Amino acid sequence: MIVDAHLHAYRTAAAGRADKDGYPITEYGAKDDVVRSDRDGTVEDALGALAEAGASHAAVLEAFTVPGLPFPEERFWPASPALPEHADALRAGNRWVCDVAARHPELLAFVCAHPAVMTAADTADHVASLGASGVNLHTTGQRVDPDDPGLWPLFELCSDRGLPVVAHCGPDRHGRDFATPAAFAAVARRFPRLPLVLAHLGGGLWRDVPGLAAAWPGLRFDLSEIVSWTGSELGPSAGELAALIRAVGADRVLFGSDFPWYDPAEVAARVRALPGLTAGEVAAILGGNAAELLGLA
Ligand SMILES: [Zn+2]
Known about the structure:
Elements: E1 3-7, H1 13-21, H2 43-53, E2 57-61, H3 87-103, E3 107-112, H4 120-130, E4 134-137, H5 139-142, H6 152-161, E5 165-167, H7 185-190, E6 196-198, H8 209-215, E7 220-222, H9 238-248, E8 253-254, H10 264-272, H11 279-294
Parallel strand pairs: 1-2, 2-3, 3-4, 4-5, 5-6, 6-7, 7-8
Helix pairs in contact: 2-10, 4-6
């Protein structure tokens, strides 16, 4: 069983292409032979890529950002949303991904939240009304601290319902530490029952992950992106990535492609080729762990 726990889809090919082209990946340093997807990232593209990989399900992560958003003046966004005029766009994106999931049972909707555009209470009410499979945050692109009080009722809801929260994790070029592994410790401390999945095994900060994982045994991780950058200047070698997975615990690591940047079939092949993992560990990573987290048969 293969479950892609980290995939993005777009309303149009142009939107997917623009997001791929507009998101330079620098945190791993140089690597000449990164195998990227040729697909644009429409829903049809995603379904084709999943079929090619033999994947039964995928989490479709909706990512809402405000173009040109300033940084919050304090650490957190104010309780009264600074930019409520963007709330309709947030709601529309979340409804779109839920509609897509309703039409395609293999796709699971992960909706987004943003404390700069919606109050904490409205955020929790909005997500509760959607019937989504989980929540996705990209706190660097969103300029949001993961522990922003505007997200606390949402995290409470997700804790109560067992709804996973996937969060981009890695360094940021602004030096604001919006999504570093350390930034999520406060969330793990405050919401010990929250099913929190930190993406990319910490990305360029992968060396910080074993300590975080040991301190917070409830945290999970996905290996998207970083597995496509093994052997890069700053990323782990394939052997170091396998050792990192072992250090965290293979039962806590989920397969993810970060489609449409990479194709799930190619990424799954990279996982199978990691040195030193048992067949059971590979099977858990490729699907078993996500199936359990998402309640899939
Ligand atoms: Zn992603």
